[in-house]
Amino acid sequence: MSNLDEALRDIYHEVLGRNAGETEFHQAVREVLDTLGPVVAKHPQYTDAAVLRRLCEPERQIIFRVPWVDDEGQVQINRGFRVEFNSALGPYKGGLRFHPSVNLGIVKFLGFEQIFKNALTGLPIGGGKGGSDFDPKGRSDGEVMRFCQSFMTELYRHIGEYTDVPAGDIGVGGREIGYLFGQYKRITNRYESGVLTGKGINWGGSQVRTEATGYGVAFFVDEILKTTGDSFDGKQVVVSGSGNVAIFAIEKVHQLGGTVVACSDSSGYVVDSKGIDVDLLKEIKSVRRGRIQDYAEERGSDVRFIAGQSIWDVPCDIALPCATQNELDRDHALALVKNGCRIVAEGANMPTTPDAVKVFVEAGVSFAPGKAANAGGVATSALEMQQNASRDSWSFEHTEQRLNDIMRNIHDRCLETADEYGTPGNYVAGANISAFTHVADAVLALGVI
Length: 449
Ligand code: GLU
Known about the structure:
Blueprint: H1 6-18, H2 23-33, H3 37-42, H4 44-48, H5 51-55, E1 60-69, E2 75-86, E3 92-98, H6 104-120, E4 127-132, H7 141-155, E5 164-167, H8 174-188, H9 209-226, E6 236-240, H10 244-255, E7 259-265, E8 268-271, H11 278-287, H12 292-299, E9 304-307, E10 318-321, H13 330-338, E11 343-345, H14 354-362, E12 366-368, H15 370-373, H16 376-389, H17 396-420, H18 427-445
Helix pairs in contact: 1-2, 2-6, 6-18, 7-8, 9-10, 9-16, 9-17, 10-11, 11-12, 13-14, 16-17, 17-18
This protein binds glutamic acid (GLU).
Residues 93-95, 117, 167, 169, 197, 349, 377-378, 381 line the site of glutamic acid.
């Protein structure tokens, strides 16, 4: 950070001191602070009221034991988290992640990002995140159900449609939300639809929620392309991951005229120059919960599976990291730039390391951070909450149109804000500043609480 941003440096050091070892959280805070110099210079009231320092300290952090019994009759113990980060704009809102890498630092980085992402949607939702180090991989349906029931047996007392509204993230999809909602309903004896989002369509869920994060990323990229009068037509796209976000990003890129030539999982990647067959990918990854190698074997001889290598070596015009945090580093960024990549949009949360972002910005690549580009998921969750509150359900077309409008608004606001603060075309600065001022004004209005 430059000398000009001394006040911000102090805040960063306070965060380092208070949250030792939580490297991903430090990184997420740093990425925001790095862009806020011009804002605090222009608006001293934010510093006077310690708004940023308050935003960096979660309102509440909950850690709990999750005991459950596996199929062999063994007692298993996991750790559960819910970090209720900021509720200035609305109830805490954010997903639950079930993955062995989950710890407090990961949940805090995700919760911190969520405050800003949710503000960008323009909808009345605060920021929070949760999860567990439980690994659903290889677990039976019964084991997943018992885990979810035990997790909710503690979590239920902290959440509610006006308090905190969890949803899915990595390792938590429709199946898990069903088990979690069932247990919440049983314990509370309330059919409180708005307490969780990502529910099934026939029991309170919203059309397009499943598709929303991936579709939203593609809509956002479409807006970037339109700024230069361009479109997806004829564009080669690489999408990392093959989970919910990746699958629906691929689907929408194809509908918009682009071709996704590669996708991946933690074992390696596949290259399919004719374009990824998204129905086959869905069948293998979402229904069978299989490996990406199966895709190559079933799709035919033209498709290559490359084990353990970087997907970012595959030449493309547009790269969409949709797997997980810090999956795209400086060397990957250099390879993408060398091969002619012009647009990068984050479908995952913080998949690009700060060094890699720097490479993209210096090379003039349009770089859309996750808080803006992947906000379509949580935005559609807020639309699900609206439908639950009015006991209504909207059509697919109407909901998708709302999502598309929200993504266009986020895109435009990022560019307008970047212009206003003297960094034209910089989506990172635009997203951070626009989100920060929106939350900060609400924090100021509510007093020191
Ligand atoms: N986990 C998603 C995200 O990272 C969605 C959260 C939600 O719908 O509440 O934004």
